[in-house]
Amino acid sequence: MEKVLMKGNEAIAEAAIQAGCKYFFGYPITPQNEIPAYMAKKLPKIDGGVFLQAESEVSAINMVYGAAGAGARVMTSSSSPGISLKQEGISYIAGAALPCVIVNIVRGGPGLGGIQPAQSDYFQSVKGGGHGDYHLIVYAPSTLQEMVSLTMEAFDIADLYRNPVMVLGDGMLGQMMEPVSFEKPPARELPEKDWSTTGCDGSRKPNVINSLYIDPEELEIEVNKTYKKYEVIKENETRYETYNCEDADIIVAAYGTTARIVKSVIDMAKEKGVKVGLIRPITIWPFPYAPVEAYADKDHVKAFLTVEMSMGQMVEDIRLGVKNKKPVHFYGRTGGMVPTPDDILSEILKIVEEA
Amino acid sequence: MMKVVFDKPKALSDTPFHYCPGCTHGIIHRLVAEAMDELNIKDKAIGVAPVGCSVFAYKYFNCDMHEAAHGRAPAVATGIKRVLPDNIVFTYQGDGDLASIGTAEIVHAAARNENITVIFVNNAIYGMTGGQMAPTTLIGQKTTTSPYGRDPKMTGLPIKMSEMLATLDSTYYIERVSVHDVKHIKQAKKAIKKAFENQVENKGFSLVEVLSTCPTNWGLSPAESLDWVKDSMIPVYPLGVMKDSDE
């Protein structure tokens, strides 16, 4: 298939359009502005397509909530402080079990933070973010090609499970350029959206989109139903990649941008006589605990190292997977600082020395 | 056979209202439903329910309904209307919802001239949460969070949403009505119907502010409450058309 050189943010936008997204509601924030700009240019040229710049992130996500309820394929994108503002609406969308795609091109925080790439929104993305018991399905691509394929996939997954899906990138992936092709993922059989509010047209009973259950027993039943759905998602949609893990002394866990950097470190370590493997979660919710534990059980694995552009967020999930069977180390840069291969290599060598 | 002279509108479901005795939400619901019946739009209507006393509007209107977070109904309605421009989309919001937490959403939906219909129920107090001060609470009015009477030096003056929204060039139709007596109920019906007709005719953003009662939180009897609307609220919130682009 033909490859095109594109900027990460634009590749996401094009992938969404090719996946059938006709509606985009957003609010500007750096470093994801190329997404709404691309949508503003392209969507009005599509029959029925709508790009709308909302007055705030809060409004944008609530427009998504309405459009998703009306049965549309709809997307919004933002960056960290903007995603914080969207959390109210994300909780309602999850509560009402509506499909939509939310892109977060993460920058450093907390607060206004900075505009450089970070991974410090991990907790917010996978441990809740908004109020209540719920999960997003969260994809963490590490190349632009993967940003394309996972964005396309995200729309199907959202429709299949009636669940909001987040594509979690960072400022590095959003701003860099790589050749990408727009091959569609294998088609999935998707359910009819017979729950949507499209006007009942005299042919059916009115539909109600809602997340309010005043009776606590009813609410508990609803939340339990959602958690049963999550078990199916964990079973079927957990994705990860391993690289050079078969005889590794040290297994490095990293996702997104840091995983790319770790891949170059593996060759550098080999020259120093250290066998390093990489485990890269592609879905960070559901999290691939099982393969992490399987490697923790291997005799050749001496230790784990988690590398993140945060103060240590995913490391907690790695520890849950390792179950104290092997030491888990952490190396992180934060505030928009990107670790260099040399930084990571010296951490690995330190661990080898200590062991 | 006897002729039916009064019946429940088709656009209302059989679910009994939960509203307090003397609250005029019931009347306003009925007016909205009658307007939908008369314009024959129930089957293509999508209502957006608010947070607050009318949170259960989704149980009462016999059409597709979408619940929204506090204040966000105009944004949710925008999302629905942009996907389904041929459907009839309305929001039903109280004063805490529309004039406080959702001020940005209503101002910008109006500024975009979204072709939606907004029913704005103003009873000058937060009802559902137990009678706290609203942006529409009158000067000197006692609420649980203004127990000595609303002091404008501390909390500013009541916001006149209809007047404010009418200053936007883009809004199509804004009218304030009341439901404190039969004559005014009839006028309110006319305004609500017009607000829906405007949408059918693709004219644009229409809002009807309806002055309503809250006997429970005002600490007045239902009859006294109707008088309070007439004697205390209408002087602050004068009735009438604030803007009609047809004229």
From TrEMBL, chain A:
Residues 248-344 form the Pyruvate:ferredoxin oxidoreductase core domain. Gene3D superfamilies: 3.40.50.920, 3.40.50.970. Residues 14-186 form the Pyruvate flavodoxin/ferredoxin oxidoreductase pyrimidine binding domain. GO terms for molecular function: oxidoreductase activity. Signal peptide: none annotated. Keywords: Oxidoreductase. This is 3-methyl-2-oxobutanoate dehydrogenase subunit VorB.
